[in-house]
Amino acid sequence: MTGPVLPVLPVTAGQARLQRGGRVTLVTRREFPSTVVPAAGPGRWLAFPGTEDLAGLLAASGANAIQVGFTVTPGAGSPGGGVLVHLDPAGPAPVLAGAVAFLARCGGKAVAFRLPLAAPVRSPGRVGAGPVTVAFLGVGPAAPEVSATLLLVLSTVERLP
Fold first, then answer.
1. Residue 123, Cβ neighbours under 10 Å: how many?
2. Domains (range + CATH), the chain
3. Distance CA 144, CA 83 (A)
4. What pLDDT digit, counting tens, does each position of 9-55 carry?
5. What is the pTM of this model?
6. Residue 158 half-sphere exposure, CB side, CA atoms within 13 Å?
7. Whole-angstrom Cα distance, residue 30 to residue 58?
8. Phi/psi at 122 (5° precision)
9. How far apart are CA 103 and CA 111, in angstroms?
10. Minimal CA–CA distance to 30: which of 108, 158, 132, 110?
11. Residue 59 and residue 151: Cα distance in Å, rounded?
């Protein structure tokens, strides 16, 4: 049994442009190193001093995105694991910013990640709420070591000709 023969349609100019793709550029405008804060819950809690007014900082720096850049060093003898990243975990509305996984194949070396932070961190109502705090909760047999930096980033998308 044979089915209908579908015609081969020509590629339009718009389709050809989409196939060529584009380029995304991330330029870090400002960095805020973290400090360890006493944990009111599980995991490693890090605060980013100077981030009390992120909406104002974004406008002043010309950035249009907020990211948390962090490195994870697996625990000794760990076959791998994961990290759950929570934004403002002690606040009235904590947000799961994301999760990452890593394997022991990294040889115990630090593995770098970046996650975009959610819109609630940008809200003007956050002014005076204290610095942004992020909790890193290890998932797996051995807790990983985590260090982080909050990044204000200018993200641009360029279409290729």
1. 11
2. 23-159 (2.60.120)
3. 8
4. 777 776 776 677 778 889 999 999 999 888 767 888 899 999 888 88
5. 0.77
6. 7
7. 9
8. -90, -15
9. 10
10. 132
11. 14
